[in-house]
Each structure stands twice: as structure tokens, then as C-alpha cells.
Amino acid sequence: MKKTFKLLPFLLLLCILASCERNSSTQQIIFSEEEKQTPDSIQDEKNPIRLAISSVLSPTDTIVHYREIVNYIVEKLNRPAILIQRRSYNEISNLMVNGGADIALLPTGAYILYKDKGGFEGIATQERFGSPYYYGYIITKGENEFLELNDLKGKDIAFYDPSSYSGYLFVEEELEDRGEDIKSFFGRHVYTYSHEGSINAVLNSIVDAAAVNSLAFETMKRENPQETAMLKIIEKSMPLGTGPVVIRSNLPEEEKELIKESFLTMHEQEFMKQVLQGLYIDRFIPFDSEYYEVPYEMDE
């Protein structure tokens, strides 16, 4: 290893979540949670609806809000439900492709990579901060001399997930356009499976830069302005739609429509509006495939 870092507690956590070997493949550490949400009026023999999530924001801070969304769907469908939480985007996507979940809040990159595999379809898109779009940022400390991606040659970078558009794929595409690749361009790259973790890795000088979701960055900017003031954005991706809500294609049509209507009108109820605000979601709007069009081929 070219440089030795102080053994900060965060570094120990980062090394658990990500491989710290230079230019080596990263083993995924899977985090999961499954909970049953069942109203008293529902018979146990009814099959539960399965909702899968992988949160852009801190899972610890947001899980309570996702539970309320599940409770809301339970009431609308009059069926029990299971909340499935996964850390990796690959797992969430495969759940939908293979029929392991009925509904998912799918990350954008994962949707683009897996949409042609079949098994699911989009029904809604998240509107955040008044827009259905977001960006990928490359951030670094403000004190660093780096001004653009080219300045990071040989430097260390944190990524979110190999299937994340903002946290990996847009950087990969930028480098490919320049005849480079991730392994040869950067000195070391790690996967944190947390945008917050990636930001903290930069703040703690564990890495020189990080590719993060603009929504996560802007959220942290609101909650921790003093910390984010120490950072600067040196690259910005093209805009893409925020993560869509997708459903299993072979669900009954009547149930599909009920689920779709439930998401699109969720913000109209005061309690659910507060739940969505806890996730920095303004509301869900109708799905449009144009939100997810990219001018290049994205491969797994």
C-alpha cells in the first residue's frame, strides 16, 4: 500500500465495508433487514406484499420513514407486507428481476442497468428539492488543489456502489471517454455502500475524493453546513431521474393500479407528507422513461 492512514474508527468501519487493497476486486458485505407489517384485520394466510429498499441517505436515520410507507401500502392493499432492506444495488435489482420483491425503490443506476432484463416496470419517480432530477458529484476537500477529474490521476477515491450512477458509473464513463479506466487511473478505490460514508472519508482525509449523489450531498449540506463548507465539487454529471418506484410486472393489473395510485397521492395525506419530508422526498410523480435516458451504453 502506497500510503499509511491513521487507524481512525471510521477507517476500521470503511475497511469492513470495502476492500482496502489497491486495484483489487471488492467483496460485497451484505446488509439486510426483513420485517413483517400486518394489520390485525388481515388473515395470516394472505400472501405478504414485499417492498425492497436501498436508501440513498443513512439507513439508520431513514428506516423509520420507510416502515411508515410500508404501513401505508398495507392499509391500501389490505394485505400484510414485508420490508426488505439491502445495502448493495445489485441485490435490490436481482430481487426484482427474479421475483423476490413486489415493489422496490430502485436506485437510478440499477434501474438503467437492469431494466432490459424484464420482471419489473416503473410506476413513479421521486421529486426531491422540487425536481425529478439529480446529479453525480465528485467532491474533494476545499484545501486541495484538484480542480477537475484529470487532477485525480493516481489519487485515492471512494465510490458508493458499482451499480450506482452518481456514486460510480458516471466516473467510469468519463474515464472511458478519455481512454482510461478506474483501476489504472486512480491509486486506490474503495466502495463504502454509503454516500454519507464516502463524504466522511473525504472529510477525514482517508481518500482524496469521492463520487456521491447530489441529493445526499445537498441533504448533508442542510444538516451539517460547517462540514460540507470544507468540501468543493470538481465534477458534475449530466442530470438523470431520481430513483424510480418499480413493481413486479406479473402482479394483477388491479393491484398495480392501486399501488401506483397509492404512491402518486401519498403526499396528499398530512401524516405521509411528513414521512416523505423525513426522506427529503417532496412527492412521487408519474414515471417517465425519458428521465433515465443516457447517451451511452451502460453495462454491468
UniProtKB/TrEMBL annotation:
Signal peptide as annotated in the record: 1-24
Keyword Signal: yes
Bilayer-crossing regions: none
Domain of life: Bacteria
Entry keyword annotation includes Signal: yes
One annotated GO biological process: transmembrane transport
Keywords carried by this UniProt record: Signal
Xref: Pfam families: Phosphonate-bd
Listed GO CC annotations: ATP-binding cassette (ABC) transporter complex
The family this protein is said to belong to: Belongs to the phosphate/phosphite/phosphonate binding protein family.
Protein name per Swiss-Prot or TrEMBL: Phosphate/phosphite/phosphonate ABC transporter substrate-binding protein
